[in-house]
Amino acid sequence: MSEPTGAARRRGPFKVGDQVQLTDPKGRHYTFTLEAGKNFHTHKGSFPHDELIGAPEGSVVRTTGNVAYLALRPLLPDYVLSMPRGAAVVYPKDAGQILAFADIFPGARVVEAGVGSGALSTFLLRAIGEQGMLHSYERREDFAEIAQQNVERYFGSPHPAWQLTVGDLQDNLSDTDVDRVVLDMLAPWECLDAVSKALVPGGILCAYVATTTQLSRTVESIREIGCFAEPQPWESMIRNWHVEGLAVRPDHRMIGHTGFLVTARRLADGVEPPVRRRRPSKGAYGEDYDGPGSRSGSAAGRD
Ligand SMILES: C[S@@+](CC[C@H](N)C(=O)[O-])C[C@H]1O[C@@H](n2cnc3c(N)ncnc32)[C@H](O)[C@@H]1O
């Protein structure tokens, strides 16, 4: 059986064309591609790439200035945070949440928009594999090009399950029998009509938005369209820890905010969403509330 796309680049001794992530004694990272006969230069001397070619991952190389660097392949979270960007990328912690809670499975038929820099596309392709289908839509041609290069550099070749279309999702979405739709854009509510036609019954819509106003409008619009079960909104935070002897405590710094996620399951055609038993909080839909359709796409956030 042949190896899954890109798997050969993720294991075994270092080869020409592999990406290498060096870590210096201060924990700083440097990423480069291995080329025979080349040197890697630092401000503390250099070393030949040939020293790493054929060496196992986790090797330590020394520069001519006698500084030691640990050499490993970048993991996908490292890769997406260091690759060239057009638009802001989905943070790896959120990509992990999307893979888990949007239930992305091998062989799934997935639609995604926008593509931005291709970070989420890469996570999705790894999860669905060759037997799946990922159709990604991006309105900006320049971003689509950057994404295509980032995805192909990661896998080492075009991924057979990936199709990339330049254009607005709501005007171009032609896929049917789609299992999962993931939206990372300023105004996901503009795509709900098209998305609801594409999704299979039981399929999942997952939206990633940056601000509370976007979250509110997304959730209320999903309720209003009427063909989804009750949407589930959440956010996640990761707090790293400092663990050293008796000094065991949370790190002083953390990434406080990336975005909000919301998922909703597509109902079968012709089915009314079950009436919610819970009464809305007092004032939730009071006189100041004027419905999802009344606000402009005002939120400054992920575009
Ligand atoms: C925050 S970026 C997406 C980042 C991407 N998920 C990643 O991980 O690299 C949002 C992208 O959505 C695109 N976009 C916004 N609305 C769109 C729409 N209706 N259809 C297609 N693309 C859209 C923007 O051009 C932008 O590139």
From TrEMBL:
A UniProt-annotated Pfam family: TrmI-like_N
Record InterPro entries: SAM-dependent_MTases_sf, TRM61_C, tRNA_MeTrfase_Gcd14
TM region(s), chain numbering: none
E.C. code: 2.1.1.220
Keyword Methyltransferase: yes
Keyword Ion transport: no
Catalytic activity: adenosine(58) in tRNA + S-adenosyl-L-methionine = N(1)-methyladenosine(58) in tRNA + S-adenosyl-L-homocysteine + H(+)
A single GO cellular-component term on record: tRNA (m1A) methyltransferase complex
Residues engaged in binding S-adenosyl-L-methionine: 117-120, 138, 168, 184
Family: Belongs to the class I-like SAM-binding methyltransferase superfamily. TRM61 family.
Free-text function comment from the UniProt entry: Catalyzes the S-adenosyl-L-methionine-dependent formation of N(1)-methyladenine at position 58 (m1A58) in tRNA.
The name this protein goes by in its record: tRNA (adenine(58)-N(1))-methyltransferase TrmI
Gene source species: Streptomyces halstedii
